[in-house]
Design goal:
The complex is a heterodimer.
Chain A (H helix, E strand, L loop, with lengths): L24 H10 L6 H17 L5 H8 L3 H7 L4 H8 L10
Helix pairs in contact in A: 2-3
Chain B lengths: L19 E6 L4 H16 L3 E6 L25 H5 L3 H4 L4 H15 L5 H10 L3 E5 H6 L12 E3 L1 H7 L4 E4 L1
Parallel strand pairs in B: 1-2, 1-5, 2-3, 3-4
The chains are: A mainly alpha, B alpha/beta.
């Protein structure tokens, strides 16, 4: 049922939200479900920081930046978002695919 | 147009399995320590498995005693002249290599990249497997205790077994 919200917005060919302003927590939850990520408070810390940082800097943050700002260790970030945490976190946060290298 | 899906996140290799990257780091200068570390980190952030083999001078990158003290060579380094404006002959003067090293460390910091020891720890925490080449270590009379915590000693043939089907990069 929560998945219906995915039909109300546009995604690119790899499933990243096209307009970051379309994002809401509800949409984030639906994306996470589609990506098979079970969200916890720790996930939300990462997601909210990624959005805040994007609004300030115009690009999705790299993981080192996320780890330093949230105090969540790199090992934990990789456990929270297995299979490519930088891309998964950006995807759930409604941001474009990250291109940075750190 | 495609809805978010797990299939865009599991990086699949040419054989259809998970994509895996094998990196061989063979050089121990400051400028040549970064490329394998940056590539390893970028791969892990994208969900690609990473096996790193540090051999010969590359061992210095993961040696506790050496990793914080890597230098830039100013002699025999063809990139020195245009970038730093240091002609090869001048590069041989005492202190020039130290100056170039200092300059590069500063530039790396300004770009937001961590120093080598922190970067190696970062890729280990990111789940890259880090190995010291057994033959090189025997030659330099080193043991696993000389390497950063989390690195293990491995023979070249074992590395070949571990990286079957992987994409290999030699730095």
């Amino acid at each position: 049922m929560t998945q219906d919200i995915l039909d109300t917005v546009d995604f690119d060919k790899e499933g990243y939200l096209i307009n970051p302003d379309d994002w809401s927590e509800e949409l984030g939850r639906a994306i996470a479900e589609a990506l098979e990520v079970k969200l916890t408070d720790r996930h939300w810390q990462v997601i909210h920081f990624a959005r805040k940082d994007f609004q300030e800097n115009g690009e999705p943050p790299g993981l080192r930046r996320i780890a330093e700002a949230t105090g969540i260790s790199m090992r934990e970030i990789y456990k929270l978002f297995p299979d490519g945490p930088a891309k998964l976190a950006a995807n759930i946060a409604g941001l474009q695919k990250p291109t940075g290298c750190i | 147009m495609a809805k978010p899906s797990r299939k865009y996140h599991q990086s699949s290799g040419e054989t259809g399995g998970r994509r895996k990257l094998a990196l061989v780091a063979s050089k121990g200068s400051l400028d040549m320590a970064y490329p394998p570390l940056i590539l390893a980190n970028a791969a892990r952030m994208s969900g690609i498995e990473v096996e790193m083999f540090f051999t010969f001078w590359g061992l210095d990158i993961i040696r506790k005693q050496k990793m914080a003290k890597l230098n830039v060579a100013t002699v025999g380094n063809p990139s020195m002249h245009p970038w730093f404006g240091i002609p090869t002959l001048l590069g041989a003067l005492p202190g020039i290599s130290a100056l170039a090293t200092w300059m590069m460390r500063r530039q790396i910091k300004e770009l937001g990249f961590p120093p080598v020891p922190e970067f190696v720890q970062l890729v280990i925490d990111a789940g890259a497997n880090v190995y010291g080449c057994k033959m090189s270590m025997d030659m330099m009379r080193l043991t696993e205790d000389d390497l950063i915590e989390g690195a293990t000693v491995l023979g070249a043939m074992e590395f070949m077994d571990l990286t079957a089907g992987a994409q290999i990069l030699f730095v």
